[in-house]
Amino acid sequence: MCGDGANDVGALKAAHAGISLSTADASVASPFTSRTPTIECVPTIIREGRAALVTSFGVVKYMVAYSLTQFLTVIMLYTIGNNLTDYEFLFIDLGLITLLVLLFSRTTAYPYLDPKAPRTKLISWRPLVSLLGHLSICAAFQAFTFEYVKKQPWYEPFEFNEEKIYISHINTAVFLQSTFQYIWESVVFSRGAPYRRSIFSNWLFLLSIVLTFGFSCFLLFIPIKSIYKFFELRTIPDIKFKLIIFGLAILNFIIMFMFEEYIIENDHISFKRSPLSSTSRNKITRSGTHHLHIENVLRLTPDWPPILATPSEEEKPPEHVLVNETKKNNQITTNEFF
Length: 338
Fold this sequence. Notes:
By secondary structure, the chain is an all-alpha fold. The protein folds into 2 domains: 2-33, no CATH class; 47-264, Calcium-transporting ATPase, transmembrane domain (Up-down Bundle). It contains 10 helices and 5 strands, in the order βαββαααααααααββ. The protein has helices at 9-14, 42-78, 86-104, 125-148, 169-189, 203-221, 225-231, 239-264, 278-287, 290-300, and strands at 2-3, 19-20, 32-33, 327-328, 331-332. It has a 3-stranded parallel beta sheet with strand order 1-2-3, with no helix packed on it. β4 and β5 (331-332) form a beta hairpin. The longest helix has 37 residues, at 42-78. The relative contact order is 0.09. The model is unreliable at 274-278 and 332-338 (pLDDT under 50).
């Protein structure tokens, strides 16, 4: 709704996005005020709103995915009486997640307005399938790492102790594998066009990805004694095993990206039925989008509504008006018809 806030202040308040075209005192009723008295700011409002919506959904999905990924790591280590150390938790929560989340939303809106609006339902099949799918992918790679490290000749089984000393090869391998997964999730859920710019335009976010990825590679390939002692990691002596862990991390990113791009964001994949089916018609009626169903039916029914043939002027019967006149005192009274 666009107005000057004079006699349309109620509409500006009630609208989803009220834009005041005046800087008068009445414009405070509108959440937005245009600096120029034109409606050229409307596309900007729509673009920024769509970008904010997509960003909010991405942040929520990332926080949920990160929590579930860490939950998988902990549950997997619990099976042998192990767990992530305090500084491993601190590095994941503060060094990775906090940094990436703070810079996640700095990506600006896309410069062009797409004719299709973004999805507005967070609790729907696409976000839920996306989270479950990425969770399954991360679980598969962590489980493979968990079992693969046991088959190495240099592997030493972890022995449970009451001092809560979790230094072990399994802890180190699974922790290093999971650090890459947190980075990949931030990249996958940071959607670009057609509602936001690419992550390459957000150079701070891109820099944080490079730094966190570089530090994860540093922990994997360069076992500095003081750093490993700080994180309570166990040195992995086999460079071939490290390369396999790195290759699994890259493969993990490729699968996650393809799953999100070609399955979740594919508009041709949908679990919705045809709008002409009876079951779908009942669902549409109950969901409050009955007008969309009616519009679709009218579009597919060109012979409705039926147009009745109207008689021409020559074929119309003559119209007669009955006039009842009475005389009173030799005067004609007013027509009773009127």
